[in-house]
Amino acid sequence: MSTPKYKLFYFNWMWIAEPARYLLSYVQEEFEDVRYNYEDWMKDDGKINKKAFPYGKLPCLEDVENGLKLGQSFTIARYLGRKYNLVGTCDAEAAKCDEYADVVKDMLAEVEPMWRANEETKESIKTNFLAKTLPRYFSVIEQDLKKNGGKFLVGETISWVDFLFAHFTEMLGIYLKTDILANYPGIRAHQKGIFEIDEIRNWRSARPVTTY
Ligand SMILES: N[C@@H](CCC(=O)N[C@@H](CS)C(=O)NCC(=O)O)C(=O)O
């Protein structure tokens, strides 16, 4: 068996590591998909060497060929995008990829406090998100997609942010238990198009089943 070129370390979730898994599947690079048990990680009993990972957090991508151990999920996805020419065709397109990724980051920053919030706070975060945050960003991206032909967010070819955006439009819907794409047929079609790519469909049917 050949040694995989990459090791991706995360928990047994999709959440912020899944765009990297999509990208590695799309470019058909073998990777070791290392999944820690979150409860074991949080025990802090020294059995897991957290210092081996940047900032003691996950995900971490190890690029075996050059020894790089990279933290920060969006940086990991962008790194793979750069390595495999999935960053648009000019600086302006690369910047638009970054812009859409930062939109996702803004949305995540609003919903992530729900993990630790009590029921009442959870409900108010969700209500605010669905009423204000989502329309603010999705109405723009819906139009951008339309202007761009519907298949890809940026330019005429697929980019790393297509995988990231398709993943989070699905993940946020699951997390909020709401059909967040009901008013955004263009974003729904974009997500469907990305998930129908052979390599992505294959990964989605082979990956471990997890809720998040
Ligand atoms: N901004 C970072 C966030 C990383 C992060 O907070 N990861 C969480 C899991 S989603 C983690 O490692 N939690 C365990 C810990 O902080 O010890 C990224 O996008 O990678």
TrEMBL record:
This is glutathione transferase. Keywords: Transferase. Residues 4-88 form the GST N-terminal domain. Its EC number is 2.5.1.18. PROSITE patterns: GST_CTER, GST_NTER. It is an enzyme of class 2 (transferase). It catalyses: RX + glutathione = an S-substituted glutathione + a halide anion + H(+). Belongs to the GST superfamily. Sigma family. Residues 90-212 form the GST C-terminal domain. It comes from the Eukaryota. It holds the Pfam family GST_C_3.
